[in-house]
Structure formats: C-alpha cells, structure tokens
Amino acid sequence: MRPVWSARPAQRIVVRWRNTVPTYHYRCKNCGYDFTKQQSFEDDPITVCPQCHEEQVRKVFSAVPIEFKGSGFYRTDSGKK
Ligand SMILES: [Zn+2]
C-alpha cells in the first residue's frame, strides 16, 4: 500500500530577503576601526581587521537597520547649525 501525497507541504516559508543584502556593522577591538560591510547570510563573518590585519573584529549588533533616508538622521559629521 502506497502513501497518498495529497497533502503535500506547499506552505513554504518564503524569505523575502533573498535580494536584500544586509549590512553588518563591525568594529576592531585592536585599533578601533569601525566599518560596515554588506554581506549575504551565507558569507562568513569578518574576523580580520582590514586596517590593522589583526583578528580582533567583532560584529556590532544594532537594533536598527542601517538606512540613511531623509534628513534628521545624521550623526555629528553634518556640522552644527
Ligand atoms: Zn584593527
């Protein structure tokens, strides 16, 4: 007797991030170099600092995705008004 595959798992979880490359924030513990890198989920995290080449890079977790849209979201580099 063969099983009947009438109820097949058609409900797949579609990951909408397929074409979105997330930006990760890294910081080097050795020299303090601070940088962001766009990586896909399959990429290995960066561990070596591109500046001092020490293996001291840690991923910085930020709650807010890095997105620079519009004004009023700048840090200190836009100067004082
Ligand atoms: Zn470094």
Gist of the model:
With 81 residues, the chain is mainly beta.
The largest pleated sheet is described as: 3 strands, antiparallel
Q: N-to-C terminal Cα separation, in Å? A: 79 Å
Uncertain regions: pLDDT < 50 for 5+ in a row?
Answer: none
How would you describe the shape?
Answer: elongated
Looking at the chains present, what oligomeric state does this protein adopt?
single chain
Structural class computed from helices and strand pairing: mainly beta
Radius of gyration from the CA trace? 21 Å
The tally of beta strands, per DSSP, is: 3
Q: What portion of the residues fall into strands of 2 or more residues? A: 15-25%
Walkthrough of the structure:
The chain has 81 residues and is an all-beta fold. It has strands spanning 23-28, 34-38, 57-60. The mean pLDDT is 74. The radius of gyration is 21 Å and the shape is elongated. It has a three-stranded antiparallel beta sheet with strand order 2-1-3, with no helix packed on it. It has a domain at 20-64: Rubrerythrin, domain 2, CATH 2.20.28. Helix content is 0%, strand content 19%. The protein is built from no helices and three strands. A hairpin with a 5-residue loop joins strand 1 and strand 2. Bound molecules: zinc ion. Zinc ion binds at residues 28, 30-31, 33, 49, 51-52, 54, 56.
Topology of this structure?
Blueprint (H helix, E strand, L loop, with lengths): L22 E6 L5 E5 L18 E4 L21
Antiparallel strand pairs: 1-2, 1-3
The structure holds zinc ion.
